[in-house]
Design brief:
Radius of gyration: 39 Å
Strand order of the largest sheet: 2-4-3
Order of helices and strands: HHHHHHEHHHHHEEEHHHHEH
CATH architecture of the largest domain: Orthogonal Bundle
Largest sheet: 3 strands, antiparallel
Shape: elongated
CATH topology of the largest domain: Lysozyme
Distance between the termini: 116 Å
Number of helices: 16
Number of strands: 5
Helix content: 40-55%
Strand content: under 5%
Number of domains: 2
């Protein structure tokens, strides 16, 4: 039989088998390919669209969050310091994109609060060096205790003693000078610290009172801020390290022995071309020549010095580095900041080397963290 012949062969001839089956009346149907694209075209399209829809739905929230982060980041860098306070600033434009932070200076009201010391009655009795030493002894105010406990007594003198030059011991002279100027410097830093604390409290509010607006406008004037720019105010309204201030006062006054310090309470040798001042020796009467600024009390000299470093264009880099230290939650480092005061004196970089040397040799950084013994609730909160 044909079937037997076919299956007896080593290989099955499929074409013959097909022919035989057809002759016997069988119907042969071709098996369909399940993956035939033409037959399942709509299924494939539906599946692909479904996957894309699911993927889009999954990624959409991340896309929106990323976009939102970009907007927040932009506001933080560019707009946060002004947008929340457009009402405070009466809707005026604060800064354009092309302007720089901490740029420009309005000197009209810069020293108004400092000049006010001239009108306020103060105790201007000049105590002798021996009297001051006795006062410090009776109040147990000495630098060893200050270094140990980190607290300085609020003994604020208005004038230096005439006998500073007569103190033969260099160590005693330096100690007396530091004891006199230290409370004054710490007090001025505390005043700035309180102002800075108030500024950030205002920045964190969405609505501000009229009193806060007036205070803010006053600070714009005191720091010579143009166009009421809050970013500039934040950079300028900051402390000067105590060790740096003491070192500069020591350098400018010869540890309190200079004529400018004794006669004009000028601790930091600031120049002026107008107004009251003391002419340096050897300079003629030419009106164009500079004078050293004269103050009624030592406190006014300290405030003028801090205002100078915090506003003058020559010290913009100093303020920029200080701001970066703040942003990094670092302590203000006087030895680093001193490098950016090369324009304070004609000797430039040599001046900064001397300031750093004074800080190191006299261990002045020991005083950077000292606190003034509180005389008010506000100051107590700073300790």
């Amino acid at each position: 039989m044909p079937f037997m012949k076919i299956f007896n062969k080593k290989k099955i001839n499929l074409s013959i088998l097909k022919k035989i089956l057809l002759e016997k009346g069988f119907t042969i149907k071709k098996k369909k390919n399940f993956f035939n694209f033409d037959n399942l075209k709509s299924f494939y399209y539906t599946g692909i669209c479904s996957v894309l829809l699911i993927l889009f739905s999954f990624l959409l929230p991340f896309t929106l969050n990323f976009k939102e982060d970009l907007v927040v980041s932009k506001d933080t860098v560019v707009n946060k310091s002004k947008e929340n306070f457009e009402k405070v600033l009466e809707g005026k434009t604060i800064k354009s994109k092309n302007e720089k932070i901490d740029d420009g200076l309005d000197i009209k009201n810069l020293f108004e609060d400092i000049f006010s010391f001239e009108q306020v009655p103060t105790d201007t009795v000049r105590l002798s060096a021996s009297t001051i030493k006795q006062l410090f002894k009776e109040t147990n105010y000495n630098l060893d205790e200050v270094r140990k406990k980190g607290i300085v007594k609020p003994i604020k003198l208005s004038l230096l003693p005439d006998e500073m030059k007569k103190i033969e011991s260099t160590k005693k002279k330096k100690n007396l000078f530091i004891q006199i100027v230290l409370p004054l410097i710490v007090e001025e830093n505390n005043r700035i610290k309180l102002d800075r604390k108030k500024l950030f409290a205002i920045l964190n509010r969405s609505n501000n009172t009229n009193t806060e607006k007036k205070w803010l406008n006053l600070k714009f004037k005191q720091y010579g801020v143009l166009k009421k720019d809050l970013s500039t105010l934040k950079i300028r309204m900051d402390e000067v390290p105590i060790s740096l201030a003491i070192a500069q006062a020591a350098k400018e006054t010869g540890w309190g022995t200079s004529r400018f310090a004794i006669e004009g309470n000028a601790l930091f040798g600031q120049w002026t071309w107008s107004g009251d001042g003391i002419k340096p020796a050897g300079i003629d009467n030419n009106d164009s020549s500079h004078k050293v600024m004269k103050f009624k009390v030592l406190k006014a000299s300290v405030r003028a010095y801090q205002r100078n470093l915090n506003t003058h264009g020559s010290y913009r880099k100093f303020r920029s580095i200080r701001a970066k230290m703040r942003d990094s939650d670092e302590q203000l480092d006087s030895l680093i900041l001193a490098n950016y005061l090369d324009k304070y004196a004609a000797t430039g970089k040599e001046y900064t080397k001397i300031i750093k040397q004074i800080i190191k040799q006299n261990f002045l950084k020991d005083f950077d963290k000292v606190k003034l013994l509180p005389s008010s609730i506000q100051l107590k909160n700073l300790i």
